[in-house]
Amino acid sequence: MFRCLKRISVGLVLGANLCTILLMWLCVALTFVSPELIPRFSLLTLAFPVFLCADALFLVFWLLFHARLAWVPIAGALVIGGYILDYCPLHLGSSEEPADSTLSIISFNIGHMTTDEQRSELLSFLNIADADIVCLQEAGKFFNTRQEWLDSAGYDIRQSSGVAFLSRLPFLGDTIHIAYPTRSNHSLACWIGCGGDSLLIINNHLESNKLSPEEKNEYTNAIIEPHRQTIKNSSHVLLGKLSEAAAYRGPQTDSICAFIDRNARHSIILCGDLNDTPISYTYQRLARRLTSAYRQTGSGPGFTYTQRSFPVRIDHLFVSEDWTCTSCRIDRTVSSSDHYPLIVRLSKKVR
After folding, report:
1. Whole-number CA gyration radius for the chain
2. Residue 280 in 3-state DSSP?
3. Are 65 and 14 in contact (CB under 8 A)?
């Protein structure tokens, strides 16, 4: 009788483990399909870390109670090992930064700062960071009245629709607007002179989910108390907003990738608030063309947006193959925005 119950228990746990693995694989498969085609279904990719953690718990269970089946969660994870490292790279030590031929760049959604304290903290952060190029999203008209600071910091500026470039390197012309369907978001590109060559910078703020603070609270509560009736009643509104934004980001990503392909012969840096995690159509399409700086040198999930138990990495920086990322860090000391800045140092490869 005991053996029979044990076999049934092992079978049930094994079945649950296999279901978890299939859901992980499904999340990865969905990154190959534009969310424009299946907007609500594409939201399943947001649950990838939940399935990954569950698979890790199954591994612990098998090691403790039935070690011969420990290979099941391990094999399930190994099949999609590259995607797991996209989500959570494991570089334990940072590369040594070369003394020369290095470019420092910041990508930061500054979130339409409304208080003098926030504005002061931003300028203090930029002064300390001392980057060659700063790419900002949701910049509003903040720098329109900061010409004296720009001059003292040595920055020239190009800006349109809240997306801004600050550069100590020379701009080679005006900004280029990448056209795509949107409600209010934008992607801009510009050419910058760098070491006797031209560098194409693409600064993005892809479609926002447009969740109010109350709806973000509902998202958190839905995770904590999924069976509460008030959560069930409002969840369809939340899902509607998330899926609508995801549907926009599919064509936006396609337009950006087409722009990259047209300029594939050139040196490219792409960054910004993509509003998508590493397990998404947006990130994976870009990663097939460019190299993620955080994947190359980062460690851990690297959350860049952490408003009220809403931790995700949605701010990214990618580079073309002629660059090596020597460091990529997220500065969590900056509190002036609901995003954290991404600070990256790059070294030009010797041809």
Report:
1. 22
2. coil
3. no
Do 246 and 271 share a structural domain? yes
Q: Is 52 domain-assigned?
A: yes
- Tell me which DSSP letter residue 94 carries: P
Residues 72 and 182 in one domain: no
10 pLDDT tier (thresholds 50, 70, 90): confident
The tokens 């760098």 sit on which residue?
Answer: 194
Domain identity same for 334 and 213:
yes
Q: Do 178 and 234 belong together in one domain?
A: yes
Residue in this structure with the two tokens 């005991």, named with its chain if needed:
2
Taking the C-alpha atoms of residue 284 and residue 129, their distance in angstroms, rounded to an integer, is 29
Residues 62, 117, single domain; the answer is no
Helix (H, G, I), strand (E, B) or coil at 179: coil
Q: Are residues 220 and 335 in the same domain?
A: yes
Q: Average pLDDT, stretch 193-221?
A: 80
Contact 304, 313 (CB under 8 A): yes
Phi, psi of 121 (to 5 degrees): -65, -40
Q: Classify residue 44: in a domain, yes or no.
A: yes
Residue 100 sits at the vertex; the CA angle it makes with 99 and 105, to the nearest 5 degrees, is 95
> Are residues 6 and 128 located together in one domain of the fold?
no
| Cα separation, 3 vs 17, whole angstroms | 21
Q: How many CB atoms lie within 10 A of CB 349?
A: 11
Q: Which residues contact 14 (CB under 8 A, 6 or more apart)?
A: 69, 72
28: containing domain: 2-87
Instruction: Please give the model's pTM, rounded to 2 decimal places.
Output: 0.91
Q: Is residue 182 part of a domain?
A: yes
Strand 291-292 with 186-194, pairing = unpaired
Does residue 97 sit within a domain? Answer: no
* Two structure tokens written together for 202: 């693409």
Number of structural domains (the chain) is 2
Amino acid at 75: A
Closest CA to 254 of 290, 281, 273: 281
The string of pLDDT tens digits covering residues 78-122 is 999 999 999 999 877 544 554 455 899 999 999 878 788 999 999
What is the C-alpha end-to-end distance of the chain, expressed in Å?
71
Q: Are residues 179 and 322 in the same domain?
A: yes
Q: Which two tokens stand for residue 5?
A: 């119950």
